[in-house]
Write a structure and sequence with these properties.
427 residues, Fumarate Reductase Iron-sulfur Protein, Chain B, domain 2, 4-stranded parallel β-sheet, globular, alpha/beta, Rossmann fold, binds iron/sulfur cluster, 5-stranded parallel β-sheet
């Protein structure tokens, strides 16, 4: 292993004193009870990898690191300040350099690196969703659960009348904002993007469009494909260069990596790009946001790991939901714990992913009263939790926080007949 790789693993993990305070925060340890599936156990394994005690080809090492969600739930639980996520990223990169990636991961990452592949594939998936077949087939088995994941990408609220369609110029003044559109969000969750544009414009931002964006690269980086993530980062940095004041993100997983582009590439343009990235709820919370509603939902907020742990954003989504008159807002036990989605983890480690999800579903199922909505700001979480709710036939739906705020603005008549809430920014 290269000296850089060794230091990249050892330095962030150096403060670990093996106290074990992180163990109860780790979903995989709670699911398996195996010390090697805990942060402390994995830190021992990663140090052994870096110092040559264990070979990169050791299958048990690879298995236990593959089973890590990368959720970073262990970081806030650690009193010593171990940067677990940085150590894990370096260890995974070191393993990929020696062993390569499994073919399933290579295929998935290739698709998301190529807009000519992911856009038609995901657009066809959205069309298939509209037939209602995925929802009808949703259930417990592996195929049925995947159908549930697709069904869960549908809008959570259906407006009584057509909502204003963002797309032409009206807004003027105020800070300029462009949405980071991404891949899965742009094709399976365009209704969330539209809700984000409308709510931002309603709160005084000048919303514009930036073309030539692509996938953020988070799936690649988490899998250890550092080069693939870097290529996508450079493409996005070029697309946004000289455009807007803020790059708003409504996908926590994307936002976490976009904010890390400076570290990923180590260049000044990358750092300048990263400094402009904000979660959409951060921008809305900075303006209040403007009160809305009423809605009658009983909402349980579930924090995406990559928003709460990776970005340290917790108050902003609660402020967005708190601006909606009439909703009953709470956080259920384990709301800050991973749901088991974790990028492509649910595809590569389906059994453990479902075990982790089951803990989340039990918390929802056991709530008294049971919520009507689980609000969470990440596509993977919306799909994973949504599919679990469908599989258990629970009377609960998953929704993005801005979807709820958007629905509330519609209910109270905030949106007028003028349909223009964004301007197109063509480089
Ligand atoms: S990572 Fe932190 S909490 Fe976990 S064992 Fe090490 S020092 Fe303790
Ligand atoms: S990142 Fe998540 S799954 Fe991995 S060790 Fe930390 S808490 Fe456990």
């Amino acid at each position: 292993m290269s000296g850089t790789g060794t230091a990249g693993i050892l330095e962030p993990l150096a403060p670990c004193v093996h106290c074990g305070f992180c163990l109860p925060a780790c979903p995989t340890y709670l699911a398996t009870g195996d010390e090697n599936d805990s942060p402390r156990g994995r830190i021992v394994l990663m140090r052994s990898l870096a110092t040559g005690v264990i070979a990169p080809t050791d299958s048990s090492l690879g298995d236990h690191l593959d089973r890590c969600l990368g959720c970073r739930g262990c970081e806030p639980a650690c009193p010593s300040g171990v940067a677990y996520g940085a150590g894990l990223a370096a260890a995974r990169q070191a393993l990929v350099e020696v062993k390569g990636l499994p073919w399933t991961a290579r295929m998935i990452l290739r698709i998301f690196a190529t807009p000519l592949l992911w856009r038609p594939l995901l657009t066809m998936a959205r069309w298939f969703r509209s037939t209602g077949i995925p929802r009808a087939l949703a259930g417990e088995g592996r195929f049925s659960f995947s159908m549930g994941m697709l069904a869960a990408t549908a809008p959570s609220h259906f407006p009584a009348s057509p909502l204003p369609r963002p797309g032409s110029a009206r807004a003027s003044g105020g800070a300029s904002v462009a949405l980071f559109t991404g891949c899965v969000m742009d094709t399976l969750f365009p209704h969330v993007h539209d809700a984000a544009r409308r709510t931002l414009a309603t709160n005084g931002y000048r919303v514009v469009e930036v073309q030539a964006q692509g996938c953020c690269g988070a799936l690649h980086e988490h899998a250890g494909d550092h080069d693939g993530a870097s290529d996508l980062a450079r493409r996005n940095i070029a697309a946004f260069e000289g455009t807007v004041d803020f790059i708003a993100v409504d996908s926590a997983g994307c936002g976490a990596l976009l904010k890390e582009y400076g570290h990923l590439l180590g260049t000044t343009p990358a750092s300048e790009f990263a400094a402009r990235v904000v979660d959409v709820t951060e921008l809305l919370a900075a303006k209040g946001p403007r009160p809305a509603g009423p809605l009658g939902d009983d909402v349980a907020y579930d924090a995406p790991c990559h928003l709460q742990h990776a970005q340290g954003v917790h108050a902003a989504p609660l402020a967005v939901l708190g601006a909606i008159e009439g909703i009953r807002l709470r956080e259920l036990p384990g709301a800050d714990r991973c749901c088991g989605s974790a990028g492509i983890y649910s595809l590569l480690e389906p059994a453990l992913s479902r075990d982790v999800l089951e803990m989340k579903l039990a918390s929802i199922r056991d709530a008294d009263p049971i919520p009507s909505v689980v609000a969470t700001g990440n596509p993977g979480c919306l799909m994973q939790v949504g599919a679990g709710l469908l599989a258990e036939d629970l009377p609960v739906r998953a929704a993005h926080p801005v979807e709820l705020l958007d629905a509330a603005y519609q209910m109270d008549g905030t949106y007028g007949p003028d349909d223009s809430h964004s301007a197109r920014f063509q480089k």
